[in-house]
Design brief:
Length: about 375
Amino acid sequence: MQRATNASSMKEQNRRLILSLINSGEHSRADISRATGLTKAAVTMIVDELIQNGYVSEYECNHTGIGRKPLYLKLNSDSAYAIGINITRHHYEVGIINLCGEVLCEERQRIANPKTTINSILKILNEQIKKHGIDNGKILGTGITTPGPVDYRSNTILSPPNFKDWHNLTLDFISNIHLENIANANALCEKYFGSCADTDNYIMLIINEGIGSGIVINNKIYRGNSGKGNEIGHISIDINGKKCECGNIGCLEKYASIPSILENTSYSSWQDVIESNDITLIEKEADYLSCATATVVNLFDISTILLGGDVGYKGELIGKLLSEKLSNKVITGCELNIIPIEKKSGVLSAGCIIIDDFFTRESDIT
């Protein structure tokens, strides 16, 4: 668990730590003080503000011992909501999640041109909000995920491969939009509602028809100078290899993406490979992934690697093979923890962009 500081300059971190702890399970104010290193007065100040704003409440636990029953803190699930919109090359998903990450509703449709798709999204959202009686004032914002690269600052989809109709499109069809590439959103989702609640540094690999990555350093998405980084799919693993659509030579995506690895085989999906237990092809995929992943691990000294997308399906075998191959390529000396991740709701991942913004937002506490 990351330790907090009582310095006023770190109030955002303190607020995030407290919200994350409350989100992770049963904690009293005293528990939070011990876990974070914050003084009881600092914890009380932040918790009281959260209670006053309706985001947090206290409740008595089932205490059988002698003395006063301790009060635990919990998030009020109906105090705030986030809209999640996941747009892929083939379909889009629209839905709403609450503050505790519960998906209240979601609808999936085949993708059309941008104008038709956006009009359909707005129609679906209006119906969902009305059906569930959600107060618009409780909606924190709208998280949208698309293939990358994207410009998260201007909410603009840049030039993802095989996504030409959406290139250079700025999304402004609803208020308070936060755009992310799918890999970054999935990485955030694992922080709040997945396997990395207590992990400060990790990388999320999404291997589907393309290869994306979300790198988390000190509990924040690593973006680089322009915010368009994390493109592990375009690390070259063969300087004399295939030319990629991005203009580079030998990109990982040209070898390890699902369409590439299945090329000239009889399989129609990665699930078919796994169900057929094709060790040769699974090991080939692990070989390709290890080349690029070793580069990232050696650069950032990251020990936790999440395998998501199609490759997350029954991913224990490829995770084991990848770990073995990386052991000969990683020079940091860290013990690697490779975790296959089954697919989560696209609405949940997109909504987590807003949850993360809420949890990390600068508070008014001094």
